[in-house]
Amino acid sequence: MHGGIEQADVTVWSSQLLFEDCSIIWLIAKMEVLQKLEVSGSSFTTLPAFPYNPHLSSLFLDDNRINTIPPQIFSKLSNLMYLDLAYNSLYMLSEDSLNFSSQNVIAFLDHNAITYIDERTFSGQQPILLDVSYNHLKGLDQGVFQPVLDNIIDNDDDSYVDATNNPLQCPSISWVLEDSLYLYFLALPEPPCTPARVLKSDVSHYSDAPQLAAPHDCYRLPCHLFRINDDDDEDDDDDNDDDDNE
Predict the structure, then answer these.
(1) How far apart are CA 231 and CA 51, in angstroms?
(2) Rounded Cα–Cα distance for residues 164 and 187 (Å)
(3) Euclidean distance between the first and final Cα of the chain, in Å?
(4) What's the pLDDT score for residue 223?
(5) Contact 46, 67 (CB under 8 A)
(6) In the chain, what are the domain boundaries?
(7) What is the pTM of this model?
(8) For 140-186, how does the pLDDT look when each residue is reduced to its tens digit (9 = 90+)?
(9) N or C end of the chain, less CB within 10 A?
(10) How far apart are CA 245 and CA 233, in angstroms?
(11) Cα(100)–Cα(129) distance, rounded to whole angstroms?
């Protein structure tokens, strides 16, 4: 192993841990077969550039105090498949901050305070699943989210983008509300403005779509798509009454 440390999984839970002391970086560099690293409950606020590691596939950095992700820090993790940055203090995602060299990254950024995502945040490979729920996003920038959705659709992945529990405003999401295919792979909160309602005749278009591998029912389709137009309900009732009279 040429001085490498043989250990597949490492979990670190310490409120005193600081990435600045280089101990974790040294660990990653030396552990040549490291596949999963979990660092939670720590007080560090930023991340260093991770050294090249061809086997590290799961990186759990949730429940810390991370507020900044420098550019290119994940770009050398060529086999990364799972990145969890939930429950931190992120307030923005800058250019190149999530530059992935792997094509199969599932990224969890939920339960932060993100208000802004730069158009070139995902300047490398696009994630195949993205969770930005429970943040402070007021819009879904088309330049950010359309490539992610296109990647999911093109690869026929049973995955999604979760943007629930954000204070989204129209017209910032008008581009996605107008596209039923994007809506199928995107979970939205109740918008602050009323989107175009879906008629009963349109619901059948979605009923045959495959279910997504997601943790709750609304991920199969944003729930507002199944809100039937009240006027149509009344018209249908009137038609039924007329039929009965005949």
Answers:
(1) 60
(2) 6
(3) 87
(4) 37
(5) yes
(6) 8-187
(7) 0.73
(8) 999 999 999 999 999 876 899 999 999 888 878 889 888 999 989 99
(9) C
(10) 19
(11) 13
